[in-house]
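Input:
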Amino acid sequence: MATISKRIVLHFPKRLTNEPIVYKLVKDFNLEFNILKASVTPGEEGLLIMELTGEQRNYDKGVKYLTETGVKIQSLSQDVVWNESRCTHCGACIALCPAGAFSIDPKTRKVIFDNDKCVVCELCIKACPPRAMELYF
Amino acid sequence: MAKTIAEINEKIKKGQAVVVTAEEIIDIAKKKGISQAAKEVDVVTTGTFGPMCSSGAYFNVGHTKPRIKLGGGKVYLNDVPAYTGIAAVDIFLGATALPDDDPKNRIYPGEFRYGGGHVIEELVAGKDVRLVATAYGTDCYPRRKLETLINIKDMNEAVLFDMRNAYQNYNVAVNMSDHTIYTYMGVLKPKMGNANYSTSGQLSPLFNDPYYKTIGIGTKIFLGGGIGFVAWQGTQHNPNALRGDNGVPRRGSGTLAVIGDLKQMKPGWLVGTSFLGYGATMTVGIGVPIPILSEEILRYTMVTDSQIFAPVVDYAEAYPQRKPDILAEVSYAELKSGKIKIQNQEIPTASLSSYPGAVKIAGILKEWIEKGEFLLTEPVAPLPGVESGIVVKPLEERPIP
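Output:
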């Protein structure tokens, strides 16, 4: 059975922030998790960004469980968006990104943004001088 | 074989001028030899596209009925304050001006999302802007309040006037402290976690004419996507900075003050810019044509990134305390490789000036000249050079009795 690994964004409604949801993913579905970012305050809407790894069958079951409990799931790559029309291709983002999601094309010296490497730390959002990096949740 | 600007202009008019960028000339001159290249090439175009804080624009907004004297009053464009200490309906808006209610660095690091540069960008894009003003009222200018939308096309004059642009060389900024700092050279990670620089190197206008032999007052240039002129030397113009054997300054040196009709400029080349924890500014596109009048001029334009050096400065201590300490000198070739080595530490580099933008500007200017749309001008006066003895001075404070 193939193992898959996906980075996802979980939005918890208020009523679920006190529930041990991630624990259930591990115990009931044998999934591994790696939390990239979390913002959970009891009584408020919660946000959890994590990498979820496991067998495809278990992964699907886990996601089904999450959806049924009322957690909204988004794939991570959609969240930080590069607005290329605003980008001046300076390069201020490159060394700041801890995940190495930005690089410079050695030929054109244009900035390249690799969505797949982004961990949504948001460092680039405010550090981009023309504010070409946008956050969508 | 010396050429004159008049002769080059004749060739431009006939569509026969040979125009190349400051990048292209390097290989051409290597292949053909200096003497042949100087004969064949008429113009070398340069470009730079980076944040330039000493930029701004002045406007004459026209007279209201009844009249209002904005001069000496308060004027806001999209909540950003403009300078009014001039005649009744003339105002000046600086690129770094911030709304009165911007939290600035009270919430550290401040975001500075919108300032004078952003207003200029929106005006150039043809957007309506809110003009809100209060005045003290006089017999001939009775009105005290004004609130209106205004568009650049309805203004009598809208003129970009930048007091200091196109710096001939600049510091490479690092942070030797143990915490992140937020500077006009970008976010600098602790313990020299990154190094930021900000010139276009071999494409930069004043690196290609290091002694200001062709660029002078009155030189016609690419400015903000339209046409502008060199108005004067820029503020902090420092022709006597340390220079290498090739004449190229190894420290921040010459600067240009530039001027041009804002109405014919393009928003993509005047971009409102925000430096986290520092402030708002504007990224400005400038391109200067260099007429190849002699072999000497051609030789200057052949300069490559490996022959241009910049000082590495600690922005946690040396820069804020105005200490002259320099950690190292590195070439633009090293900077563009993506990493430099300082004190045995490998440091990732990044540019704040856009090299692709500079390439594009040099290309656009080349196209304008090739098509015969852009003629060169003879400077009406030279910029102060080494012989002027001008050296930039710090402010030495004196107590007020």
